[in-house]
Amino acid sequence: MDIKSMKNYLYWLYCQFELITCSYLMEPWEKVLFYTFNITMLVMMLYTTYIFVPVHISTAFQFFLHLFGNQHENTVSVVK
Question: Which residues form a coiled coil (predicted)?
Answer without folding.
Answer: none
